[in-house]
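Onboarding guide, step 5: your first structure request.
Type a short instruction followed by the sequence, for example:

Predict the 3D structure of this protein.
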Amino acid sequence: MSLLRKDPIVGRWIIISTERPKKPEEYSFEEPADDVTPAECPFCGGNEAKTPPEIASFHPETSSPNAKGWWVRVVPSKFPVLHIEGALEREGSGIYDWMNGIGAHELIIESPEHALRLEELSENQVEKVLWSYRDRILDLEHDSRLRYVLVFKNQGWTAGSALNHPHSQLIATPIIPKFVKEKLDGAKAYYDYKERCVFCDIIRQELATPERVVEETRHFLVIAPFAPRFPFETWIYPKKHRCSYVDISKEEIMDFSRTLRHTLLRLGKALKDPPYNYMLYSAPNRVPRSGHWHTLNDDFHWHLEIMPRLTRVAGFEWGSGFYINPTPPEDAARYLREIKL
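The system replies with structure tokens like these:
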């Protein structure tokens, strides 16, 4: 019989199919061949003139900005969904509200080499990527117009990537996105009731009963969540409570680079290099506000969610808000734990 499971953070119900759970080898996906050569790719080393001027980069002291020799580059999107220039100019007409599309849309180019996946990079290179996330969030939070900065990665065409070169994206918005607000509100409601962080409670319970634990390191815990929307959905939690990713330490970011790379390698080996998305959820811009914000440091806990793209969202999911997952998270965690790195 199928099970209904409730996410303890946002209250979302998930249907877990248990009658015939799917194994890793039963999933399939089709990705088109890469038809962009390194000479044509605007993200490859040596093609810096094909992108807008860089916002930031990690490079040796002997290298120059916007020139070959960098490790990680951050550039504005050529086709931004939001623009940094201008004023919000909020307006309303009856029940309808709108504002100008103010924000930021940046691309983090993770390597000068073409057609690699993040997990194929060295730990040192992944660490530079993770530092670039921190630096960009920290810089954009100085802009009082911006309320939230979401860092995300689309790996593969099915996951939404248009270019087969290792890169992540960052979009800063003048409002808090709905899904993020659901997390913030759920975390605050739990804290108001129990005076504890729901994420810290999840970490304690998963460590006490580790059937959904994929890996534990000194600073991080990798789990298959109790109510996952998608098969092999995997979350990475820092064990130390912090609401914002920008407060991560050097030792933690070194561990995070190993942990993220290992997790993606496990998923790749188990599922034959699937397309995936990941999202880095951090605290919103911590401008003092009434209501929600006074407990933010205590009730929210930054984390990263990885979602392999193995199933399609169809009419029932769109119409109901339910998700159907054909692989119980306990099975998914066991399959991933068994992978030899």
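Each response can be followed by summary notes, for example: The longest helix spans residues 250-271.
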